[in-house]
Amino acid sequence: MTGGFKMAAGRLSLxxxxxxLLVGGMxxxxxxxxGNCCADLEERIAELEATTARKGNRKVKLExxxxxxxxxxxxxxxxxxxxxxxxxxxxxxxxxxxxxxxIADGWKAGYLLEIGIRSANSKRFDQDNDNASASDxxxxxxxxxxxIDSKTLGRVWVGQTGGAGESVTEINVAGTGDVEKYSDVxxxxxxLALRQANGxxxxxxxxxxGAGNAITIRRLIRDGGDQPGEGxxxxxxxxxxxxxxxxxxxxxxxxxxxxxxxxRYKGEFAGLKVAAGIAYGETTEPQSTTxxxxxxxxxxxxxxxxxxxxxISVMHEATGLYVNFAAGYMxxxxxxxxxxxxxxxxxxxxxxxxxxxxxIPLGKTTIFGQYxxxxxxxxxxxxxxxxxASGGPDTRxxxxxxxxxxxxxxxxxxxxxxxxxxxxxxxxxxxDANVDGIGADAIDGKVSFEDVxxxxxGAIIKF
Length: 463
What we know:
There is one protein chain. It contains two helices and 18 strands. The protein is mostly beta strands. It has one domain (about 60-460): Porin, CATH 2.40.160. The longest helix has about 30 residues, at about 1-35. The chain starts with a helix and ends with a strand.
């Protein structure tokens, strides 16, 4: 018994001695390293900072966000069918930088820089070019603007951004505009060329004519594809009033010359979520400019037009039932066109109705239907081929007036944990036009084009 006790005590003494040696060794090692341990740490931190994106001005907030929106589109123009992968231009892929900084109590300054990206443009491809042209893809500048904001006086913006008319005909509390807009219908398949009843494209009476010079779906809509009453982003000075009882008024001026006035509302009452807006504008900007909206005229001296547009979106929050309605018109003087019988007014109305509910744990499901009705005026564009090198006939022609009816059905499924929306859409397009022939062999009179069907499926993921 005594021997066992002595053995245990001896082992305890050895362990104690080892512990003192270990602690002493560690202390000596730390003493030997001195400041080198911190120097190594600081060097490593410097390396990480050198490879990390950070703000250049710590006084101004920086927020980076955006989304990726890609889809598979199948189309059938009654003669040809095909399928491809496209950036969904209903809300194309983009990234943005935004932020603000406090100036004083009630005052701040801010900025927005946003770049769009198209890998293959969903509104510009046609039957002969499944990726559209190089100029239709790649990067595009959406917003580059600074602002000064006062809680009591409102906000002033300077730079490239949207004015009072931007998205005023697309208001949608259900969020389906990210995948398929009910009023801006050119974004999905708008570049597809229309065919005559005989199966040939609109630009010629021969089978060899390609889709490149034919009338497309989007070219029937206000010459450039944008719905009447809708504004566009451009270089401007803009003023927004402070919000009063849910209402905000906007006035903007830019380019040479475009001005707009608008009023918007957003609020909730009686179990309803409501958003609405209306805007009026005038411009002297001709087509092929980057103004807020464009006249049909190709001459700066002659261009003069005006437009009015608006929309409203209402959702019953308990049931998820909702409805969107939009309408707009544009009147154009057509000073430099002056073609007998040309219609100087383009107008549209559009409707979306659906239901949005969280039926499964993954997120809300939205089921919706859309209808779009457009009565268009003349365009300054000519379609078809000029005189050939061998002296063949000029086959150009101009749209005097047009009619477009589009029916759509869709489903959108949210994946809340991933910040993603999956979608599947069907769209049916019917089009007619009164055409004025310019050349000896051009089409004259009313043309009923073959119907076009599209099926789109894809996803948008936000970051």
